[in-house]
Fold these 3 entries.
Entry 1:
Amino acid sequence: MRAGEGVEKALWMAFVPSYIELERIGELEKRIQLLSGILKECRLCPRECKVDRLKGEKGYCRAPVELRISSAFPHFGEETPLVGHHGSGTIFLTHCNLRCIFCQNFDISHQGQGEPATPSDLARAMIRLQEMGCHNINFVTPTHYTPQIVSSLPEAIEMGLHLPIVYNCSGYESLEVIRLLNGIVDIYMPDAKYMDEKFAERYSKAPDYPLVIKEVLKEMHRQVGDLKTNQKGVAERGLLIRHLVMPGGVASSESVLKFIAKEISVHSYVNIMDQYRPEYRAHEYPEIGRRITHKEYLEATQLAKGFRLYRGF
Ligand code: SF4
C-alpha cells in the first residue's frame, strides 16, 4: 500500500449512499414496486404516453421494456468532480424521451444501438465499474428506464455497491418519478436546455419543457442540495446542472442562468457547455446549423457571473 492510501480509502469509505439505508429498512423495495407500476400505463416522463410497456408497447421514446446498454466504461470527459482520478463509471442507455433534432448521440438515443441487459447484468456492470476504481455510477439518459435501474440496486448492494448514483438526464422529467427517487439518487445532473416554449417545441417537441425544468430543478435541489465534494474534490451528493449554449440564443441562456441563480442557488454547480455542433437533423434548421461563436459563449459566462454564479464554468 502506498503512503496515505489507507487514509484516502477511509475518507472515501466514510461516504455511505442513502440507497443502502433505504434497502436496509425495506423502503427500496416499495419504491421498486411503485416505479415498476408506472410502466403499465407509462408516465415515466411528461409525455405520459400511457402505453403498456410491460406488454411490449412503445411510446414516444421507442424504448423497450428491457433496459438496453450502449456502453459502460470509466469516463474521463465528464465534469471534474465526477471524474476525479479514476473516472466516472458511465453507463450509456439507449433511447431518449426528449429526442432533440440536434442530438449529439443520435445513434444511441434515436436509433437505440445497444444490448439488452437484465437487472442482474446491470448490477454486475456497476460492480465492474466500482472495481475499476470509478468514483460513481453515472446513468446517461435514464428517464425511460428508471424502474429497471432501481430494480437492479438490491442485487448490486448485495454485491457490495457503495458508490454515489448519478442521474444524468435531459431535465424533461416526471415530478412523480423524481420524488420516488428521493434517497436513491445522490447526484442529479440534469440539462437545462430551454426557457422558451417555441424553441422547446421546434427542436424537441416539448413545449412544456420550460415549465417542467423549473419544477424539476427545484425538487432535485430540495432533495440533494448544492453539489458537495469530499476532501479530494470528488462529488458525493448534490445538484450539477448542464447548460448547452446554442447558436442564436435559442437556449435562452440568460433566462436559464437567472432562474438557477434566483430560484435554485447561487452556489449551484453549472457546467456552461460550448460543444454544440449541428448533428442529426440540425442542418434542416439553418439558425442552428452552425457551431456557436466564441462571443456567444463568452456572453453566457458573463451573464452567469453577473447573476453571481461562480461554480462549474
Ligand atoms: S418514458 Fe417513453 S413511453 Fe414513457 S411516457 Fe415517456 S416517452 Fe412515453
Note: The two ends are 36 Å apart (CA to CA).
Entry 2:
Amino acid sequence: MKRQALWAGVLLAAAAVAGDAPADGQRWWAHIAFLADDKLEGRNTGSEGYRKAAAYVQGEFERAGLRPGGTDGYFQPVKFNSRQIVESDSSLTLERDGKPEPLALGEDAVIGLRVNPAKAVDAPLVFAGYGLTVPELKYDDFAGLDVRGKIAVYVSGGPSSIPGPLSSHYQSAAERRKFLARAGVAGTCVIANPIAMDVPWSRSALSRFQPAMSLDYADLDESGGLKLGVTINPAHLDKWLAGSGHSAEEILALAKARKELPHFALAGELRAKVEVKRSQVESPNVVAVLPGTDARLKDEYVVLSAHLDHLGVGEAINGDKIYNGAMDDASGVATLLDIAEQLHATKPKLRRSLLFVVVAGEEKGLLGSKYFAAHPTVKPDEMVADLNVDMFLPLFPLHILTVYGLDESDLGKQVRAVADPLGIRIQPDQEPQRNLFIRSDQYNFIRRGVPALAFKVGYEKGSPQEATAKQWLKERYHAPSDDLQQPVDLKAAADFNGVILKLAEVVANQDARPAWNSDSFFRRFAKQSE
Ligand SMILES: [Zn+2]
C-alpha cells in the first residue's frame, strides 16, 4: 500500500459506516491508523516497527494516567530466538524402495520452524489419525502404534466425540508435544484439515518465509524434543499415502466429517534437510495499571490483554508486502487504549485494579503472553480474570456477541448481565473446530488458572454476516490487505468497546473474584496453582 492511498483509506473506512460515524468509533480508529500505518511495517516481533508501536502504547497509557506496570517502566522486555528458512538449501524427499520422490516445498508441504529443526532427519512415517491424546476420555491415537524414532503424520483437528474445549486444549502445541515426546516421536507432518483452513493453502504457504520464534528461556521450552515439523497440503496428500492402501479422499472425508480415523504405517521414509538462519531478538510487553480504590480488593487485578505484534514485511500479495495487521490486532490494542482513555475521562471508582497487558510474539505462538503469565509483574494469584481482545472483527452491527469460554466460568454470567440490557445477544463458540479458544493470549492465563474470556462480533449461521466474516478471513486474514483501506463498522466497534469497558467495571467491582464453573475442564489449572 502506498502512503498516498492511506488517507483515502481512512476516509473510506469512516465513510463506509452506515449513517453517522460516532466520535468514539473515530477515536478507536485513530489508534489503528497509527499502529497499522505502513511506517510501522507490520509490527513484527523484534522489529523497529514494533518498537515504535510499543512507544506509542506507552505514550497513550501515560496520557490516560495509568501507572507503569512492567519491570522497566511500562516495558517488560522479552527475548526470542528467531529462525528463518534457507529454502534453497532445504529439501523434503519421500523414499520408497530406494526410489526418491522429491517434494515441492511450498506446494506439497512446508517446513515449519516453530520446532527448532535438526539439520537432517531420515525416518519412517506412521499415520496416527488426529495425533491426539485425551487422557480423560481414554482417547489415544498413539495407543498400540509404534512411532518411536519415527515421524507421526496426522490430520489437525479431532473427532466430534471429544468436546470442544477439551479437544482444543489437547491440540495446543504444549500439550501435544508432551504426548509426542512420551511416544518418542522424532518429528511431525501435520495435514492441514480443510474444515479448519481459514486461509487458502497458497497464502498460508507464503508465511513460511517469515521468521519463526521461540522464547529464549530454558524453563519455558515446550518443544518436546521434536526434530522436524512439516505441514502437508491436503490437496497433495495422495503422494504421502501411496502404497499404504488408503487414499486422500477417504482420509479427508472422515476428517471433514470429524469421524474417527484409521492408524497405519506409511510406505517408505521421509528424508528432510533443513537449513536455518538463526538470530536473537528482543521486544517488550507493555504493561500498565489503573489502581483500584478498595483497600483490600485493589491487590486483585482484572487483566485486559491484546497483542501488539503482527507479521511484519513478507511476500508481496497484489504488489503489497507490508502486513499491517489493522484488525489483527491493532484493533484490540486500540480497544484497550480507548478503554483507558474513557476511564481517565469518567473516573469511575473501581474496587479492583485493572492491569493492561499488551503483548509481543502472539503471531509466533502466543509467546509474549506465555512469558507474562509465567513471570507476571503482579503476584500470580492476584490476577482474577483475563478479558482478551484479538481481532474482534466489527464488520457489521453488533447484535450478537460470540464469547469464547462462555460456559467455563461465572464471567459468562457477567457478560450476559452486561449485554442483555443493551439488546446484544450472547452466544458461545459456533465453530469449535477452529480452536479459537486456544488461539489467542487468553489461553496462557487459562493455563495458569485465571478465568478468561475472548470475544468476536457474532452472527447467525447462514446469514449474510457470516458470509462477510468468512470472506474477510479468506481475503484479508494474515494478508497485506488487513490494512487501513478496508470497510469497518465504527459504530459496531464503539458498541463492542462499550461492552468490554462495562464488563471490566463489573468484574472489578463484584464482591467475589471470578470462579471457574464446577464442571469446567479448565478448573484443574486453578487447583494446580492454589
Ligand atoms: Zn494473527
Note: The radius of gyration is 23 Å.
Entry 3:
Amino acid sequence: MTSDIEPFHAIAISRLAHALKAEGRSIIHMEFGQPSTGAPAAAIATAHHVLDSDGLGYWESPALKARLARHYLETYGVTVAPEQFILTCGASPALLLALISSFEPGARIAMARPGYVAYRNTVKALRQIPVEIPCDASVRFQLTAAALAAIEPAPEGVIIASPANPTGTIIEAGELEAIAAVCRARGIRIISDEIYHGLSYVEPARSMLEFAPDALVVSSFSKYFSMVGWRLGWLLASPEHLEKARTYVGNLFLTAPSLSQHAGLVALDCDDELQGHVAVYARNRQLLLDALPRLGLTSIAPPDGAFYIYADIGHLTDNSLEFCQTLLRDTGVATAPGLDFDPVEGLRFIRFSFAVSTAEVEDAIERLAAWFTT
Ligand SMILES: Cc1ncc(COP(=O)(O)O)c(C=O)c1O
C-alpha cells in the first residue's frame, strides 16, 4: 500500500543507547537532531510566571504572530500579515497541514533523496505519492531547478529544505530563485521547510518567500530556539491559502500549547544566548570536519547549516543500520543510519548530529579514532 510507512531507525538506535546507558555505559548522543541546551533562560522565567497567573486555555497569541511577522521583515525583508501564521505543535503538524490542505490523495510530491524521513512518510500517510529525486554529493544532496524541470509529468508539489536534514546543505539564493521560476512555470506548489534557519556557518539561509510569495513555509522553535519539547512551530500560509489551512487546523489540532506561545514570544528576543549555541555548533562542526577525514571518512559535503554531517561509509559497510549498532556497542557513540533519509543509497551513509557539547564532540572523536583505526 502507498500509505505504508517505515519506522524511524534512529529511534531504535536511541533505544539501544539508553539501554546501554542503563547498564552503566557512557553514551554520546549524536543520533537525534535535538539541541542538548534548554530553552533560553528568559523564556523559562516567563513560563514560570505564566504558570502561576494564566488559565492556559485554547489560545493563539496575537503578540507572537505579530512578532513573527516582524521577524520575517527584519530577517528576509518579506512583508507578511500576522494573520498568515498558523501556530502549531512544531513543524511536524505544520508540514502535515501544508500537505493535506494543498494536495489531494494521489498527488505527486517531489523531494530530495536523501531527505528528512517524515517528508516521505507524511506524504505516504496522506496517500499522496513521494517523487524522490536522487541528489548526490555533486549537487550537495540538494534539489536543483534543472532536476525539477526534468520531472515528467510535473509533480503537483515539491518540498524544499534549506538547510537540509541530513546534510545541512543550503540552497543558495540564485538556485532558490531558479527553483521558484520552474515551479511558477510548471504549476508546482512549493512547501519550504525552514526549520534550521538561524543555524548557518556560511551565508545565512534565504527564505523561499523572497522568491515565491505563494510558497507555504513550515518552521518551528525546535532547533535554533532550542525548544524541542515545547512543541511550538508555525505554518506561514499565503492569504489565498489561509482559510483552507485554518479549517484543517481547527479540526485536526485546535491550538498550540499556550505556555509555549508565551515562552516562544520571549525566545524571539534571546539572540545573544542563542548565538552562543550557534558558536558551539560552529566549533563542533569544524572539529568533526577536521577529524573525520583522518578516520577515512573523506566523502562529506561540509554542512552550511543545521547541525549534521552526512558521511559516506560505503567503503566500510553496505548496511548502515548494523554499522550504527556495532559502532554504538563498541564506542558508546550513537549515530543515525542513512537508511532513515534515503531508502536506496542510505545503507552506505551515517549522520552525525553535533548539537551536543564541544567536550562530547572531542570525546566522540577520540573514541571514533580508536575504533576506525584498529
Ligand atoms: C527537516 C525537519 N523538519 C521538521 C522537523 C520536525 O520538527 P518539530 O516538529 O520538532 O518542529 C525536523 C525534526 O528533526 C526536521 O529535521
Note: The chain is about 40% helix and 15% strand.
